[in-house]
């Protein structure tokens, strides 16, 4: 006969009570687990998408402006010519230390061209890299050849052209090889040709206006890659595209804050359930506690019995709550992501945290009932029965 | 120095106008190995006296010492230890823990004492055998009779081999025949050296004791001691009547 055995025997006897206690904590822990792993899964999903699709580093020409100041007195800036990026320099990107993390390098040569009396934006791109850099592109037709052109949805509408039609761009005859489905981006208004075609038309041989780079990695050192690329392209301005990521992350963070708030409330309610149930439990066990005390149990022994019961139930609630939370996450993430699979990670440290949370909460909520039990006057406790 | 010293003991419940002195200035001493019956009308303060002597009810005034230990000067935790090491309790209502088996109930006082599991197990079984309940060890309290419950309660009270047994109407809820069985157990325990203080309403039960204290209105009204063993009831089994009984529980 040990204190632990007494605790367990009592729990076994009051299965309904113990079950209720368990449920209160399980709901709380499950909610917290679900919210936590849901936010985690969605964050990972977003990161995954960002890695997989689209550029996340942008290389632009440096428009130099040397600040001239002396002793805090500004003498104004002296603008220099915009130095365009040379296409031949781009191979250096393949030689940076993190080159293995580069999924695609997409040079773009931009320029304004007259087409049928309008001025439109022409973009020469590397269509091989477009698959990675522009995953949202869906086209009706094919990528253009040397004398072909791909039209944005809006440009095609404005020019009233379809696949197979011809148009003259800055005096050069091009055949429409395909039309982009609307993307909702600026791409809709553009004409796309091969890089070399655009360079010829725009008279910018070997020059590119900007370069999109897709970095491919989990927790990619994008900043570090930016630094490395800037090193090999000293005349260019290299930056990470973070707006998109930041925007999405902000939304997710808001969702996270709300969800954490809700789970905190649910956990509080769970703790309250524990408090009330344990308090009732202690009152119900007045006689028994009186017996323990009369037989020579110290107050601390009684305290231990009550807290051990709480810890046992809480640990179980932690395990069950974690399992339920992960299950709920699988379900919810599938709903939220519109059917496409999102990995929900099952990590032992997360399970450990859930159990620890449950035990800490259960113990804290049981502290008052336990102290009440420990303070019971054995004489009174036995007299009342 | 006597084994038990009760001096000018006062226990008052409530305060001011509503104050009731359940025990109102009682003094007596008990020597080791005595068997004392406490008698008196209902409400006289017998249970109160016993709970004070049980280290569970601090007196308003007076001194209570066992083996030279001033019980109420102990810190609360030492008070609990004192109960465990010096006292065995037998309550009128059995007070067995209903979800623990008979054996586990008997082992309760050992749960918080040091020692190996097997040794505790053996001691509890020995105590159960001593009260004749060895075959009911794995039953729950709800599955045994009233007399058996009382015997289980006695086994639990003596498993720690306390020098002092306190019993409050141990036969109060038993029929006279089972009551006699229980009294014989207590007498046997006393013959083995345990000091016994027992509250009872029954003069038959009081007859087992060599000394009777009469309490009335919280005061000691009479204190009479038999001469020798003469008053031991005649129907006591021969084996038990022989001093010491040849049995030991430890
Ligand atoms: N905790 C308490 N609070 C207030 N009054 C009490 C308390 N305990 C006992 N009393 C009162 O003290 C007096 C003595 O009670 P006690 O239980 O000691 O009597 P008793 O001799 O054991 O009676 P009985 O033979 O009926 O068991 C009674 O008047 C009782 O009402
Ligand atoms: Mg009484």
Question: Can you characterise this structure?
Answer:
The complex is a heterodimer of chains A (385) and B (250). By secondary structure, chain A is α+β, with helices and mostly antiparallel strands. Helices cover 53% and strands 21% of the residues of chain A. Chain A has helices at residues 3-13, 15-52, 127-133, 153-159, 195-202, 222-232, 243-284, 286-294, 299-336, 348-375, 378-383; strands at residues 57-61, 65-70, 73-79, 85-86, 102-115, 118-125, 139-141, 148-151, 166-169, 172-180, 191-194, 207-208, 210-215, 236-240. In chain A, the strands form three sheets. In chain A, strands 1, 5, 6, 7, 8, 9, 10, 11, 13 and 14 form a ten-stranded mixed beta sheet that branches. A two-stranded antiparallel ribbon of chain A has the order 2-3. In chain A, β5 (102-115) and β6 form a beta hairpin. Chain A is elongated and about 110 Å long. The two termini of chain A are 25 Å apart. Chain B is α/β, with parallel strands linked by helices and 250 residues long. Chain B has helices at residues 46-53, 76-86, 102-111, 117-130, 146-158, 176-191, 203-206, 238-241, and strands spanning 4-13, 20-30, 35-39, 61-66, 69-70, 87-90, 164-168, 195-199, 211-216, 219-225. Chain B is built from eight helices and ten strands. Chains A and B meet through α1, α8, α9 and α11 of A and α2 and α3 of B. Residues 46-47 of chain B line the site of magnesium ion (MG). Adenosine-5'-triphosphate binds at residues 13-14, 20, 22, 40, 42-48 of chain B.
């Amino acid at each position: 006969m040990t204190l632990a055995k007494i605790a367990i025997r009592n729990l076994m006897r009051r299965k309904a009570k113990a079950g209720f206690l368990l449920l209160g904590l399980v709901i709380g822990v499950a909610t917290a687990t679900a919210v936590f792993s849901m936010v985690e899964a969605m964050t990972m999903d977003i990161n995954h998408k960002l890695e997989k699709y689209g550029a996340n580093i942008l290389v632009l020409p440096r428009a130099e402006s040397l600040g001239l100041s002396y002793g805090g007195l500004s003498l104004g800036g002296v603008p220099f010519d915009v130095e365009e990026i040379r296409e031949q320099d781009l191979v250096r990107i393949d030689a940076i230390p993190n080159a293995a993390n580069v999924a695609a390098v997409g040079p773009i040569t931009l320029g304004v061209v007259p087409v049928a009396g309008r001025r439109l934006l022409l973009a020469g791109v590397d269509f091989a890299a477009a698959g990675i850099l522009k995953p949202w592109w869906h086209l009706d037709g094919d990528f253009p050849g040397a004398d072909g052109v791909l039209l944005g949805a809006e440009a095609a509408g404005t020019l009233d052209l379809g696949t197979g039609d011809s148009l003259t761009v800055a005096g050069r005859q091009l055949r429409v090889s395909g039309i982009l489905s609307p993307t909702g981006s600026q791409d809709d208004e553009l004409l796309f040709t091969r890089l070399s075609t655009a360079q010829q038309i725009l008279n910018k041989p070997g020059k590119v206006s900007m370069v999109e780079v897709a970095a491919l990695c989990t927790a990619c050192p994008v900043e570090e890659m930016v630094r490395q690329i800037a090193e090999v392209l000293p005349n260019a301005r290299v930056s990470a595209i973070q707006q998109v990521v930041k925007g999405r992350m902000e939304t997710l963070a808001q969702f996270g804050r709300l969800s954490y708030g809700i789970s905190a409330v649910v956990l509080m309610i769970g703790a309250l359930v524990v408090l009330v149930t344990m308090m009732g439990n202690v009152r119900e066990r007045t006689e028994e506690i009186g017996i323990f005390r009369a037989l020579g149990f110290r107050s601390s022994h009684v305290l231990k019995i009550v807290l051990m019961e709480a810890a046992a139930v809480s640990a179980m609630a932690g395990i069950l709550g974690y399992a339920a939370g992960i299950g709920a996450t699988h379900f919810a993430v599938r709903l939220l992501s519109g059917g496409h699979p999102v990995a929900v990670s099952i990590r032992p440290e997360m399970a450990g945290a859930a159990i620890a949370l449950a035990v800490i909460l259960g113990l804290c909520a049981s502290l008052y009932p336990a102290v009440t039990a420990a303070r019971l006057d054995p004489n009174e406790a036995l007299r009342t029965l | 120095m006597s084994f038990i010293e009760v001096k000018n003991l006062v226990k008052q419940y409530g305060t001011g106008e509503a104050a009731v002195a359940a025990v109102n200035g009682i003094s007596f001493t008990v020597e080791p190995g005595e068997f004392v019956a406490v008698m008196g009308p209902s409400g006289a303060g017998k249970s109160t006296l016993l709970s004070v002597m049980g280290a569970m009810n601090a007196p308003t005034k007076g001194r209570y010492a066992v083996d030279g230990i001033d019980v109420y000067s102990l810190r609360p935790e030492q008070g609990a230890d004192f109960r465990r090491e010096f006292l065995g309790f037998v309550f009128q209502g059995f007070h067995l823990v209903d979800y623990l088996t008979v054996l586990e109930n008997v082992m309760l006082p050992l749960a918080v004492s040091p020692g190996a599991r097997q040794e505790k197990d053996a001691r509890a079984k020995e105590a159960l055998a001593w009260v004749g309940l060895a075959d009911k060890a794995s039953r729950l309290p709800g599955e045994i009779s009233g007399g058996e419950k009382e015997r289980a309660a006695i086994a639990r009270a003596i498993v720690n081999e306390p020098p002092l047994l306190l019993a409050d109407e141990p036969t109060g809820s038993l029929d006279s025949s089972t009551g006699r069985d229980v009294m014989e157990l207590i007498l046997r325990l006393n013959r083995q050296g345990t000091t016994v203080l027992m509250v009872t309403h029954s003069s038959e039960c009081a007859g087992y004791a060599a000394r009777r204290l009469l309490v009335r209105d919280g005061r000691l009204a009479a204190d009479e001691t038999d001469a020798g063993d003469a008053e031991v009831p005649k129907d006591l089994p021969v084996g038990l009547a022989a001093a010491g009984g040849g049995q030991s529980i430890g």
